[in-house]
Amino acid sequence: MVFKAADPMVKEAGSEPEIAVFNALLQLGKRPGVDFSFQSKQFGGRIDKGGRVLDFEIYEPRMGINVQGVYFHYEKGSAIIQSDIQTRAFLAAMGITLIFIDEDDALKDAKFYVREALQGKDHSRLGAGA
């Protein structure tokens, strides 16, 4: 099953790389609402001060996957990068591993990078050496 941006399951996705990751999770046998959730609010979500949103919350193992857009996550300055690093630290304190997948990698071979993420491997620009 392949989802497009107009499908109800991912209509809020807003980005092609997130849809690619969503589809890769499906291809790897993960089921929405059972094995993972999309746009999972943490610490109150975007509405609450200090709140965060995981693009994908994986229930087992406890982890999150966030898609890192080049413009919104790397080119908008150090404050955004610092926020992403803080999100990783906040989640780690809760026992949740956060893996980043860069948008160009998601578009190139989402299934490979999602499989790697599920094994705890972070190939993103922020994950270098992680």
Brief characterization of the structure:
The protein has 130 residues and is of the alpha+beta class.
Task: Walk me through the topology.
Blueprint: H1 16-27, E1 36-42, E2 52-58, E3 63-68, H2 70-74, H3 78-93, E4 97-102, H4 103-118
Parallel strand pairs: 3-4
Antiparallel strand pairs: 1-2, 2-3
Helix pairs in contact: 1-4
Q: At CATH's second level, what is the architecture?
A: 3-Layer(aba) Sandwich
Q: What is the number of E strands?
A: 4
CATH superfamily: VSR Endonuclease
Q: Could you state the order of secondary-structure elements as H and E?
A: HEEEHHEH
| Beta-strand content bin | 15-25%
Count of helices? Answer: 4
Beginning-to-end CA distance, first to last residue: 33 Å
Strand ordering within the main sheet: 1-2-3-4
Largest sheet: 4 strands, mixed
Overall radius of gyration: 14 Å
What is the CATH topology descriptor?
Endonuclease, Chain A
* CATH level 1 name: Alpha Beta
